[in-house]
Write a structure and sequence with these properties.
single chain; about 190 residues; mainly alpha; about 70% helix; elongated
Length: about 190
């Protein structure tokens, strides 16, 4: 017996999403990937700048303190970018704070490195905090130029770019988290978000 289906004219008018604010609805399912990518870029640039400083400086208390700061930036950086990816306003401020820390790092070891290198050029017996990659043999330490100015300026540029990436990641995260919070405030979330 053939099975014939008749069109009874039943129209299902139920819509399970907010048609007036599709962008808000899409934020439920999409991550804040731009802030995440900028935060990862900030972490990477911060590490590169730190590696240049570690390679150019003598080991001591200052380097251990800088190493601890880098570990903190890595840990809080990864935590913050994961939370900002899920539209956390609080961790957007953490990313902006990390950008400010990167700005402060510009004026610490890279600046001391350039000052010590200027003194070393005037009198080669005054080494200061310069490491063996600058004062030693070129053949042994040749992956970067031995010029302290080049190393200091390179680290400064990397820290500045990391600061810009962190600050923009935080600002974009703030904007999107506020937009998401405004959308969720208008929704019925009794059955989940």
């Amino acid at each position: 017996m053939p099975n014939k289906v008749e069109n009874t004219g039943i129209v299902d008018d139920k819509v399970y999403y907010n048609v007036n604010n599709l962008e808000g609805e899409m934020m439920r399912y999409r991550n804040n990937s731009l802030s995440y990518k900028l935060g990862m870029l900030g972490i990477l640039l911060s590490l590169l700048g730190a590696f240049i400083c570690f390679n150019s400086y003598t080991w001591g208390v200052e380097v251990l303190l800088k190493l601890a700061i880098n570990i903190i930036i890595l840990l809080f950086g990864f935590l913050a970018i994961e939370k900002v990816k899920a539209y956390s306003e609080k961790y957007s401020y953490v990313l902006i704070g990390m950008g400010v820390v990167c700005i402060a790092r510009i004026f610490w070891i890279p600046l001391i490195l350039m000052i010590d290198y200027a003194a070393y050029l005037k009198d080669s017996t005054v080494i200061g905090h310069l490491g063996p990659t600058i004062t030693g043999s070129y053949l042994v330490n040749s992956y970067l130029p031995m010029n302290g100015y080049f190393r200091g300026i390179s680290a400064m540029v990397l820290f500045a770019c990391a600061a810009v990436a962190f600050i923009f990641a935080g600002l974009i995260g703030l904007k999107k988290s506020r937009q998401y919070a405004e959308f969720i405030a208008t929704q019925d979330t009794t059955k989940g978000v």
